């Protein structure tokens, strides 16, 4: 590929990602460029980025309001949120969720939840203000960052090594009127020639919010977080980085789950190393090692069921992992990546129940009865992987990417309950061998037009709940679920075709037009879902409806298809109008219904105005009715709705930023199709949880 074509491609790719990024910060070019640790996407090195990737940079300088986890994914087309309240929020992308998405921090660090109800997903162990960028690969199109089934979501925290030398810092406060929420965040960092350090602290206190009709939703929580990161560059070509962070969640109310969190503590320790410019043939060595731990305590003390049974669960999860990658240049322009990685999650913990009343009659028992239930049965899943991936420009217009990955997945259950052994007499540790592969092409038609075509085969072995859960209600419905240790890994064969284009207009009222679309089709083998199994008997409260029990099984036939498209028009220098659309259609052919958790069609209109010292935005999000549902999952049709958000920010002085925002200004009462339903709440039956009504917020930030 000749130089001008390379330059064109860079310009094109950079230009089109701008529409995702909204605002990019231009770095002062340093004379000596420090070694940077790898992320999934590398700004300015678009020839290395995976196909169908996008990122959203948090507009660091132009803030409107304090961030929450939901906001991190709001601006990325195709994302939806699975809400169990206002705290335990999981991202969903194109109807893939949980372990189907490879969600990680900083290019590989993982934090696995301890709670069987996912009260503590990875998004709860981070300060949202700390996340500077969210990177996404939309399918199994790269395997360098671990086994990937439905896509990669990489949350990038502040990249100290990219900053200017000296001291930096910021402190901010935010407040919201709906739920009387307050947020605070402080950060100080030092960047030196060889040494750098970064310290974060955050505190958040949220009350119960009200929906559009003024009904209070039990959703309050408090969380305190801090993180420390130190980096050392022993030579020009090396970097070592050590990170440690802790998060303390307290008194979290989960409207859509049977219990509330008392304690949710997590810590993450990570060590990164990179050696660059090794030789002509071998360019880079990157290594990472991490350990994370989540301790979780939940009770039903504040719930109606407490009067019959007192229940306390104390569970924990330990995640260990690491990777080593070598980047080669066997011939000029040919980038070859080889590596190995490992990922292990182990969970323990019990639920203690004190039965105070006779379940049949409701009469108090003369002697309350105590029970102890194994939640995780001391299970462990280890994944050891090896990958090879190559990027080669076939001509000055074609970039070819081919990758393979092998995973050895070992699952063990160390303390199986008697009834679980009775259900599965052949229960033993098990080893699976998974093969993943991808091939894709980037085709640069002209400097303003890029076409992408990709195929990926992503494989996901069953998670711990799907394998080993023993009569717990872990779904959105009230059924007891039983794991299945003999599940086959589910396979996603995904095809995707996409276009990104732009046009610049000199001397007109219209300045720039960006547009793009991608269409995908996923054919699944062995898709894992839970269905009612008449051969299973209910274990807990056997007389209470529903009396059937669900078991996880593999489906024979299922598929998914859909598209995303966007168009953005920049005009009158400071204005931009953007439209985005995302749609997914899923089919579980075995049961002739949709797959669970399929999001509705979402259309977003965004008008923004941006100058150096003043900026504003109006967003109208139209969510259509969802009637393609999974009745076997307890889903019901969800009405469509439209929500209007307004925000305004100003920088009156050099270091000071002030923002105000109004979300859902028309006080619409609505619930998203992916929201959980109220469970075990005194004031609500099993109806979907409504999202917040009107919310006014104010934000102030001082940075230097
Ligand atoms: Cu929990």
Automatic annotation (TrEMBL):
InterPro entries: Beta-barrel_TonB, Beta-barrel_TonB_sf, Plug_dom, Plug_dom_sf, TonB-dep_rcpt-like. The keyword Transmembrane applies. It is a multi-pass membrane protein. Keywords: Cell outer membrane, Membrane, Receptor, Signal, TonB box, Transmembrane, Transmembrane beta strand, Transport. Residues 192-665 form the TonB-dependent receptor-like beta-barrel domain. It is found in: Cell outer membrane. Residues 63-147 form the TonB-dependent receptor plug domain. It holds the Pfam family TonB_dep_Rec_b-barrel. The keyword Oxidoreductase does not apply. Residues 1-21 form the signal peptide. Belongs to the TonB-dependent receptor family. This is TonB-dependent receptor. The lineage of its organism: Bacteria, Pseudomonadati, Bacteroidota, Flavobacteriia, Flavobacteriales.
């Amino acid at each position: 590929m000749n130089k001008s074509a390379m330059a064109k491609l860079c310009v094109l790719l950079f230009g089109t990602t701008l529409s995702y990024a909204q605002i990019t910060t231009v770095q002062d070019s340093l004379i000596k460029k420090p070694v940077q640790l790898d992320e999934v996407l590398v700004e300015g090195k678009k020839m290395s980025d995976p196909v169908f990737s996008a990122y959203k940079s948090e507009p660091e300088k132009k803030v409107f309001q304090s961030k929450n986890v939901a906001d991190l994914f709001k601006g990325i087309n195709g994302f939806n949120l699975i809400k169990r309240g206002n705290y335990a929020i999981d991202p969903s992308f194109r109807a893939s969720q949980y372990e189907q998405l490879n969600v990680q921090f900083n290019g590989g660090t993982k934090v696995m939840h301890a709670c069987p109800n996912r009260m503590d997903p990875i998004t709860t162990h981070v300060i949202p203000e700390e996340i500077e960028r969210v990177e996404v690969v939309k399918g199994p199109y790269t395997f360098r960052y671990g086994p990937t089934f439905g896509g990669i979501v990489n949350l990038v925290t502040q990249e100290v090594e990219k900053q200017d030398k000296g001291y930096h810092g910021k402190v901010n406060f935010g407040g919201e009127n709906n739920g009387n929420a307050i947020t605070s965040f402080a950060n100080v960092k030092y960047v030196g020639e060889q040494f750098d350090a970064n310290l974060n602290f955050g505190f958040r206190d949220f009350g119960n919010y009200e929906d559009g009709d003024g009904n209070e939703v039990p959703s309050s929580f408090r969380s305190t977080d801090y993180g420390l990161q130190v980096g050392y560059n022993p030579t020009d070509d090396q970097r070592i980085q050590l990170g440690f962070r802790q998060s303390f969640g307290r008194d979290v109310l989960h409207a859509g789950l049977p219990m509330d969190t008392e304690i949710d503590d997590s810590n993450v320790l990570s060590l990164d190393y990179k050696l660059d410019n090794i030789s002509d043939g071998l360019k880079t060595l990157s290594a990472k090692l991490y350990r994370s731990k989540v301790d979780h305590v939940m009770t039903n003390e504040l719930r109606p069921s407490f009067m019959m049974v007192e229940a306390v669960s104390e569970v924990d999860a330990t995640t260990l992992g690491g990777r080593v990658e070598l980047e080669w240049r066997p011939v000029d322009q040919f980038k070859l990546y080889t590596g190995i990685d490992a990922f292990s999650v182990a969970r323990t913990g019990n639920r203690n129940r004190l039965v105070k009343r006779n379940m049949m009659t409701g009469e108090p028992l003369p002697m309350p009865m105590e029970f102890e239930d194994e939640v995780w049965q001391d299970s462990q899943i280890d994944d050891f992987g090896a990958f090879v991936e190559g990027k080669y420009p076939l001509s000055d217009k074609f970039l070819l990417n081919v990758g393979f990955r092998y995973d050895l997945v070992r699952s063990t259950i160390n303390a199986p309950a008697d009834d679980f052994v009775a259900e599965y007499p052949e229960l033993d540790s098990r080893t699976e061998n998974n093969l993943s592969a991808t091939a894709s092409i980037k085709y640069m038609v002209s400097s303003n037009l890029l076409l992408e075509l990709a195929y990926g085969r992503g494989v996901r072995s069953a998670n711990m709940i799907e394998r080993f859960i023993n009569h717990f209600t872990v779904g959105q419905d009230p059924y007891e679920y039983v794991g299945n240790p003999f599940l086959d890994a589910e396979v996603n064969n995904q095809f995707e075709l996409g276009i990104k284009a732009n046009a610049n207009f000199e001397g007109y009222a219209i300045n720039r037009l960006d547009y793009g679309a991608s269409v995908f089709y996923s054919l699944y083998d062995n898709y894992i879902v839970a269905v009612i199994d008449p051969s299973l008997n209910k274990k807990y409260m056997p007389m209470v409806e529903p009396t059937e029990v669900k078991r996880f099984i593999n489906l024979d036939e299922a598929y998914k298809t859909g598209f995303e498209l966007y168009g953005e028009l920049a005009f009158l220098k400071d204005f931009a109008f953007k439209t985005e659309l995302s749609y997914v259609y899923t089919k579980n052919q075995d049961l002739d219904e949709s797959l669970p958790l399929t999001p509705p069609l979402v259309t977003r209109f965004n008008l923004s105005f941006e100058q150096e010292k003043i900026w504003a935005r109006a967003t109208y999000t139209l969510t259509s009715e969802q009637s393609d549902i999974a009745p076997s999952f307890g889903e019901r049709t969800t009405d469509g709705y439209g929500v209007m958000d307004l925000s305004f920010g100003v920088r009156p002085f050099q270091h000071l930023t002030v923002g105000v925002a109004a979300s859902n200004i028309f006080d619409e009462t609505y619930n998203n199709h992916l929201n959980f339903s109220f469970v075990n709440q005194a004031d609500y039956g099993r109806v979907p949880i409504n999202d917040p009504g009107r919310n006014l917020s104010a934000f102030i930030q001082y940075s230097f």
